[in-house]
Amino acid sequence: MSLIWLVLIPVIIFILFLIGTLFIFFSIPSRRDFHFFRRHAVVTGGSKGIGFQLAAGLIEKGCNVTIVARNVKDLQKACEELQLLADQRGQHQKVQWKSLDMTGDYDVIKAAFDESANELGPIDILINNAGHSVQAPFTELPISDFEKQMKVNYLSAVYATRAVVDDMKKRKTGHISFVSSAAGQFGIFGYTAYSPTKFALRGFADTLHMELLPYKVNVGVLYPPNTDTEGFKVELETMPEETKLMSDSAGLFTPKYVADAHLKDIADGNYATTIGLDGWMLGCLTAGACPEKSLGRALIQSAFAGLFRAITLVYLGYFNGITKKCYRRRLQEKEEEKNSENGRKEE
């Protein structure tokens, strides 16, 4: 009898696994490859950093590209470089720029996007990359920073998406991407204004993905970690010590590496793009109820969520330790400074 059970138990486990896999397979949306050639792509925040590299990657895949930002000089410089890249391909691709405040009046934004569509054809791809971060302890940030962060990081994507989505639904084709952040999956010290806006993007993308399924319009989210951009270098100048120590643990990636990874996921019809080993682990852990189109990814997320939760708790403990250590050191420095002042007074 015991020998029979030794044989049957593995068979039963395999059958249950197979049944579970089939349930997942028939539950997840079908994954559709996306083809770039001759498509018109719009990239907000496209004059620098990840946005510029996304635009360059789209050109290499055969797209006509419109880049959107505020600074005219940066746009002109970026557009010249991108057009040169396009000309080298010999595919008669076009690149243009639009100077827009993506936090401004929606009607102005809509008119500019319509103008772009008239010039380079219907907008097939929208990558919402506009945004920046501020970092400081919560009580040191002015309330206006919270309002500005929500406008530039979240509402700008809402406005741009609203400007293109009706036409995509009508034509039953298109792709919309949102550039979130690892800070939109994992909140750490100093990001009380920034992280919520990136979490909001994920919530918006999750919901929009479901609404657009019947129209065959793809939606994707990119979660970049620390990336070696001009903006990140500026952030480092004012970044709190705690934030910098925590961020250092995730490493630093090039904008091209991040952009190439996301464009590959767009082409493959995947929903989420994570970067590096830490990013992959965090993506599996925080997948939760977010959309998933890859059976392989779904099985890995299901199998390793518990393990990755345990690992993340260790990370959280390490980060909490950094916060306490920096706090104690500041208290000690203040005490030493106070004692030094008292000593000078006694002299």
TrEMBL record:
Annotated EC: 1.1.1.102
GO MF entry, a single one: 3-dehydrosphinganine reductase activity
GO CC term, one of those recorded: endoplasmic reticulum membrane
GO biological process: 3-keto-sphinganine metabolic process; sphingolipid biosynthetic process
Keyword hit for Oxidoreductase: yes
InterPro entries, A to Z: KDSR-like (IPR045022), NAD(P)-bd_dom_sf (IPR036291), SDR_fam (IPR002347)
Presence of keyword Secreted: no
UniProt keyword list: Endoplasmic reticulum, Lipid metabolism, Membrane, NADP, Oxidoreductase, Sphingolipid metabolism, Transmembrane, Transmembrane helix
Domain of life: Eukaryota
Main EC class the enzyme belongs to: oxidoreductase
Pfam family, one: adh_short
Functional pathway: Lipid metabolism; sphingolipid metabolism; Sphingolipid metabolism
Subcellular location: Endoplasmic reticulum
Entry's transmembrane regions: 6-28, 176-194, 298-319
PANTHER family reported for this sequence: 3-KETODIHYDROSPHINGOSINE REDUCTASE
Protein family per UniProt: Belongs to the short-chain dehydrogenases/reductases (SDR) family.
The protein's name: 3-dehydrosphinganine reductase
